[in-house]
């Protein structure tokens, strides 16, 4: 009756007493079920984010109980609020220690699990005895829980953990008879090793020798799915020394490829790929690679979020073994209801899988995608068509025809993207498709485009193929109409374009435009690059040697081989070892996104791993270039020096137009990237020679000064203002 | 693996959290709603993101975010799989995992979170085993027995045994095993009636009601297994079928299958999926041949005509055939004409459902639908409508497309030595993606 009264009071009672008060009185109630009910309500309040830490002592009073559920609830509360009342936690220690002796293994395990989760310094001192006891418990469920508790203790207090020899016990547990205990012992060891160096652990870490290897391979077939992942992880971090070892491991891991848990499958693939390198027989490696393709595909029959991770990993594997999935193209076709991020990632895989055999199929699929509604997806598809065209010469005709169809539909974002793609195609096949592409350009006005990158591409094509473009002067007029206001990237493109036109197909109008543009660039435009470039052009043109200018400006560009982004070799090798981790999703080494890892590795090292490959490649290229030019360089004329510089600049500027504002995107060939950076490198390298030839340059400048007129290709001189000349001088 | 696991509603408001490692400040969670919006805008909603050294990994399920946080370069694939398994476990417990059921069952969820993961390391996610010692009615049971400590729940032996999926001492009066061979077909057909993509996703489901620790051996027809053998080594199976990536329940002895192609196992009790397989690009004809036309009368009225021929043997019966024909959003007063089947407009998914209880192969049906377009019709609405594929959903019993046959299921229980009865059923059904582009 009294309980009923109380409940009635609760309902009708004065609200000013507050919820906390009610809970408190419930917690100290004389009735067990009422106390338990109150604990539940406290936990409910905690769950929705209310602060119930003030009830700590009252909840604690309920800790000694035989009701397992109530015990769990109190423990849960303790774990959450231990930090707010570290002193009072000590009161709970006794119960914990008692519970680790309870006849019921569930209670023993629960006690040691919870104790490890109370992250209070004081409690650490009391952990030695119960932890020792549970680590040698008869029941495997308790042992496996205690194994993980060692990792928790280590996280709290490394010294105590080492002093008490818990790591030794953990290492012994690796040889336990129960597979789950083995797996958890290894998990704990891996966890400890991941955040600490071996030196600190005093050699107490998992060393995989023949005996342990045998144990691991045996346990692999017996333990739960999660245990298998742990063991596979340990195996993938182990370096096999001999071909026999590697082949043995691979043989034992291969059956796991058929496991129903995709994480086990990917962990197996990772392990196999790791030991794969050590195999000697070629036939064997081929056979193993073939076995991997079906399991890789199976990773895709999962929810979209998981598929995404799988696709990012597949991309890394494909980069290393490009032919692995070449027959599986259709699996990667986009489904109507795939989320956007999945669609885009699938296209990445599709373009990498394209080959002569499947190109027709792929292109018709990509065409289908290009007519979808989602803007980003459509753009990416159009770009993909270009990538296929550039990768596969045999299919380029088909691809260009599809692009032609798409561009004539005239949806603005398709056109914007299409123009960039067309430019790349012209860079790859300078002659083949001129008759198809030029009419598109001729029909298009610059006002149809609104993205800087597209406009730059458009301007580049007009400049490069000016001979074939009808009504060139009119087009030029449109192009330069807004010159002062537009994006610097486009200004650079226009500069190159107009200079080119004046060398190839000069007309009265075009010369007029050139003069206007040069004046504007040198006097009004604020962007330093644009100013510099126009000065350089100006000076070159005033040399009055049209043949020389032509040989500089109209230099043949290197052929684009691919516009599919590649992962640099060093990074790739690193990522192969990082399959299934966050690195594999971000495609970055861990120190790029994790502070602790970045600190752990010295600055030098970061430079090494991150830039190494690029810099190596660059250095190699630069060397070749220098060797090639050495003969020329020996009898350098003052202009030859410029010649080279200009040559690069031109190549560079056109590549600039190629991918301005798109540096992190896929449309950029690594080739172009390298050129870009090569140029930077040369800028550094050539500082010496520039100084050396300064005198000559000055002489030349004086000549110009004396003439006081600058001639453009013998075609009508134009007076320049004195100011311009001074500016020009200050350049050198 | 993970430092903490969180459940959040669609707006990113936390519903329930479990912090395993305590190395992540609570401010990280408060930022989550902003971060998902940002991610949606700048990164197409990729479900993994990094903000100030903290990595957010999440799955969206029933308008609930299940989120894991970590600071280390962890095995993100395992975390994702753990999250999706956790969803399965919780769904198994509460039928539906949604805001409401999370609020109502927070006690059990905490228990499950503790049991499935410890210090961020996944432990066990098999709902059958978990249900043996974590039950929703636990407190009712214990109130009666709390005086008697010996009857308290023990951790099931199975939990840590090599055979972690089956407990000892199971007993049935009548020992039976039911086998279902279910094949789901996914197919994308383009507007010319050519198959762009097709695959069969097969599953053998078993419902075992067998006593003791029975050892089972499943025999499949040779032709089927041979094609599996070859897919590993030789490129294309000679029978024309390419069996790919067979996956087995953890109870199947994988090395035995790898070496001898024999499927042996000790089954878990009750229902489970024994194996799954995939057949890529099987030599299939399109199961349906369609003729689709629509006519737009000056953006006010739309006429849709669809003719479907069931392109398979007459003796096969197709049950619960549903054809989803897309229409623009917000249409008005649709009128239907057809000889067979039931037509209904489903406004929430903007389509017309054409439903048949059952129909035989070889038949042909047509329908005509007339509807009014909304007066505020925009071009995009119409554009989306034109891109939407027609979807099919159906099942055909007593039939496997791949030709898989169960030859025998030998049941051997060494101690009890009982008589047992295996039953086998076959069914072919549509997968999630059975689409005709138009």
UniProtKB/TrEMBL annotation, chain A:
Keyword Transport among record annotations: yes
GO cellular component assignments: AP-1 adaptor complex; cytosol
Residue stretches making up the Clathrin/coatomer adaptor adaptin-like N-terminal domain: 17-543
Compositionally biased spans, kind Low complexity: 650-671, 692-718
Keywords linked to the UniProt accession: Membrane, Protein transport, Transport
Described purpose of this protein according to its UniProt entry: Adaptins are components of the adaptor complexes which link clathrin to receptors in coated vesicles. Clathrin-associated protein complexes are believed to interact with the cytoplasmic tails of membrane proteins, leading to their selection and concentration.
Gene Ontology biological-process annotations: Golgi to vacuole transport; intracellular protein transport; vesicle targeting, trans-Golgi to endosome
Cross-referenced InterPro entries: AP_beta, AP_complex_bsu_1_2_4, ARM-like, ARM-type_fold, Clathrin/coatomer_adapt-like_N
Subcellular location: Endomembrane system
Predominant cellular place of this UniProt entry's protein: membrane
Protein name in the entry: AP complex subunit beta
GO molecular function list: clathrin binding
Organism for this UniProt entry: Pachysolen tannophilus NRRL Y-2460
Domain of life: Eukaryota
Family in the record: Belongs to the adaptor complexes large subunit family.
Disordered as annotated region, ranges: 644-671, 692-732
Automatic annotation (TrEMBL), chain B:
Entry keyword set: Membrane, Protein transport, Transport
Pfam families from the UniProt entry: Adap_comp_sub, Clat_adaptor_s
Subcellular location as annotated: Endomembrane system
Domain MHD span(s) in chain numbering: 174-437
Signal peptide region: none
One cellular component term from this protein's GO annotations in UniProt: AP-1 adaptor complex
Isomerase found in the keyword field: no
GO BP term, example: Golgi to endosome transport
Family membership noted in the UniProt record: Belongs to the adaptor complexes medium subunit family.
Stated name of the protein: MHD domain-containing protein
Species the sequence originates in: Pachysolen tannophilus NRRL Y-2460
Lineage: Eukaryota, Fungi, Dikarya, Ascomycota, Saccharomycotina
